[in-house]
Amino acid sequence: MMRIIMLGAPGSGKGTQTQLLSKYFYIPFISAGEILRQESKKNEKTKKYIKKTINQGKLVKNSFIINLIKKKIKKKNCFDKFILDGFPRTIKQAESLKKHIKMHFVIHLKISADNILKRITGRLIHEPSGRTYHETFNPPKKKYIDDLTGELLSKRKDDKKKIIITRLKEYKKLTEPLINWFKMEDLKKNIKYIEINANKSIYKINKKIISCIH
Known about the structure:
Strand content: 15-25%
Order of helices and strands: EHEHHHEHEHEEHHEH
Shape: globular
């Protein structure tokens, strides 16, 4: 069994590394951000709530996202092997996850604020699949075109500098205590905590993660 949590600030490369690990280990991944985007298409009330929360750079309610994650794990039939990208983000979420599923690894991508701003402002998204690219660091083969489908890529509305700064403040406030929580869980042998220098190139980061997991 291999259940992995990808942890890091917005723009740390969680999405990219999740995709690379998914291909390398042949295991599915679950993106919290993608689940929210898909959920927002179901009804207008949910769409307004999610859109308003994300555009403000804040997190949706714990109970809301936890229920969606549980449903996704069951739907994808991936209980034994999967990667969680973007969840949990708080200690409360982590404790709830622990009650239901034993995770094996948490990969913390540590990166400087300057590099986060550089990465996010150039990020490109293929919305239907959640695949991510970057104009400079990880460009698609054809400009603004998804490599697999040939469909047009887009930029997220919450990738604007002002919103990014708000998201980073929210991350520091809620998620950084989670890092210490995972370190304590590691000491208790409940999970293996791995910290990675995410200021390096995509493939150097990926190589380091794989070597740590093996």
